[in-house]
């Protein structure tokens, strides 16, 4: 096989895969410019959500996404609705759907309204 062709195949296999919609996933190489911008904005919004470590003081003891109990020191992310999840679990979820998996509150609307409140 041609070396350049093999290199191209390996690059495509290693390319990240994103969910354009909850049911549609494509390699970053297959995304339109508009889809890439939308995903970049979503990643930026996710990074603005606060994170921490589970300290055992919360009533919530289980991540409802993976259904595993939180362990002391687990990295967690807090949503504006005050629900908490393992960081990896919720980040993956939010790349597909920008709503809280527990209460279905739109995360983006809460984030954007908090920016608007701060700007006044």
Question: What this model shows, in words?
Answer:
- One of its GO terms (molecular function) is zinc ion binding.
- This is Putative RING finger protein 11.
- This protein is an alpha+beta fold.
- The chain has one domain: 2-Layer Sandwich (Herpes Virus-1).
- The protein has helices spanning 3-14, 33-47, 87-96, 107-119, and strands spanning 17-21, 24-27, 51-53, 75-78, 84-86.
- The strands form two sheets. Strands 3-4-5 form a three-stranded antiparallel sheet, covered by helices on one side. Strands 1-2 form a two-stranded antiparallel ribbon.
Q: Indicate the CATH architecture.
A: 2-Layer Sandwich
Query: Count of helical segments?
Result: 4
Overall domain count:
1
The CATH topology: Herpes Virus-1
Tell me the strand percentage band. 15-25%
Q: Major sheet, described briefly? A: 3 strands, antiparallel
| Series of secondary-structure elements, N-terminal to C-terminal | HEEHEEEHH
Number of strands: 5
Question: Distance between termini?
Answer: 62 Å
CATH superfamily: Zinc/RING finger domain, C3HC4 (zinc finger)
Morphology? elongated
Runs in which pLDDT lies below 50 for 5 or more consecutive residues are 1-12, 116-120
The CATH C-level class name = Alpha Beta
Share in helix:
40-55%
Spatial strand order of the main sheet: 3-4-5
- Radius of gyration, taken over Cα atoms and rounded to an integer in Å: 18 Å
Mean pLDDT: 78
Query: What class would the helix/strand composition place it in?
Result: alpha+beta
